[in-house]
Design a protein that fits this description.
Elements lengths: L7 E8 L9 E8 L4 E5 L6 H8 L7 E6 L2 E2 L5 H11 E4 L11 H11 L1 H9 L4 H11 L4 H5 L7 H13 L5 E5 L7 H18 L2 E5 L11 E4 H4 L10
Parallel strand pairs: 3-8, 3-9, 6-7, 7-8
Antiparallel strand pairs: 1-2, 1-4, 4-5
């Protein structure tokens, strides 16, 4: 029986922003197991979003390694990292990153259009991208009328839910969520958390979830404090 690689493995990670004099992130070791649900906390400016960008291969460290599903991201070209991220990582960005002129439905479907592996996983489950987008949207209280609207016409909370559906469609092996419930009311926040956990469990996906809302930590297998992981120089400005 083969051993499934860790969802995320960091070793000797060092990162500094251009023209900065010191590292803003220095993480000696971090492993997130396949299927594990991890809540990452830390004050504003502690480097949480930077860490997520490194895990997603959006930026590369100056030293150390970042592996996702056994793949060292630094060994890939920029284009190959983009393709790997599209296939294997579902991102819920803090600023959503929706295309404002596309409908909410088409924004959700972009994940499958960019990733043959996501389309294949949807097909293997006996569905289609369109049907899967509709299912996820219904779970997130996004009506058919809302799905037809351009993303620019949606409220902040609606855009946040569209971004969540886009991250989840096609069952990626790792879901990374950066403050995904910040614009949701209490009822929709709970529905969102329920859906996120259920979809990750069904796919066997790991979840790395960043939030300032400590109440949500009870839903997770492990709580990490970035301040205890980060050995970067005290006082250095981080993002």
């Amino acid at each position: 029986m083969s051993v499934q690689p860790a969802a995320v493995r960091l070793a000797g990670l060092r990162y500094r922003w251009p023209r900065a004099e010191a590292d803003c992130l220095a993480v000696d070791a971090l492993t997130i197991a396949a299927g594990e649900r991890v809540f990452l906390r830390g004050p504003s400016g502690s480097g949480k979003t930077t860490l997520l960008s490194l895990v997603g291969g959006v930026v590369l460290p100056q030293a150390g390694t970042v592996e996702v599903a056994g793949q060292a991201l630094g060994a890939l070209s920029a284009g190959a990292r983009d393709r790997f991220r599209a296939d294997h990582v579902g991102f819920v960005f803090q600023l959503f990153n929706l295309l404002p002129w596309l409908s909410a439905r088409d924004n959700i479907l972009l994940a499958c259009r960019f990733s043959p592996q996501r389309r294949a996983r949807v097909a293997a489950a006996g569905s289609t991208p369109a049907a899967e987008a509709a299912r996820l949207a219904a779970r997130l209280d996004l009506s058919a009328d809302l799905l037809a609207r351009p993303a620019a016409q949606l409220s902040v909370g609606q855009q946040q839910r569209v971004a969540a559906a886009r991250a989840l469609i096609g069952r990626p092996g790792l879901v990374v969520a950066d403050e995904p419930t910040s614009a949701l009311d209490a009822d929709r926040q709970q529905a969102f958390i329920d859906l996120l956990l259920e979809e990750c469990a069904a796919a066997g996906a790991a979840l790395l979830f960043v939030s300032h809302d400590q109440r949500l930590a009870v839903h997770f297998d492990r709580v990490l404090d970035l301040a205890s992981l980060n050995r970067a120089t005290a006082g250095e400005a981080v993002r």
